[in-house]
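Record type: monomer structure entry
Structure origin: computed from sequence
Chain ID: A
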Amino acid sequence: REQRVSHTADRELQDIEKKYPGFIHMKLMQGIRLSYSLQMVLCQDGSKVYRGFRTKEGELPTALHGFLYSCLRSTKVTRRAILLNFLKQFDDTQSTDLSTMLYLADNLAYIPYTVIDEPLFLIHHIDLIVSVTGTNILQAIKESLTVPE
């Protein structure tokens, strides 16, 4: 039943993208946040960690939003815009909690990339984020560790 619902949702997303190009991209992050909320409801097994990938026995893990990315990755510009939307959630000015960031990071890690440009673009921007955010965090740690005189 779950698989049937998933396939129906995938078909509906494809139809919407064909009829109204750009509409799904416009609501992408809102939809991903709602999917995270749905995962919180579905995975009430006592675990407070919600992962952004699924595993099947004998197969490699796949991103929960891998199909969505596959539908929307028609051009280089849209691929990069999708990846940047994901990465914006990791910006230190955002108020994204750690478990949501883990969910998003899992999706980024297991998206079915088809062009080498995609993961390299992602790595480059992660490097930029870490260099800026890492410097701020390091400075905050240094300030908290200094002994008052």
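Annotation 1: The radius of gyration is 18 Å.
Annotation 2: DSSP finds seven helices and two strands in the chain.
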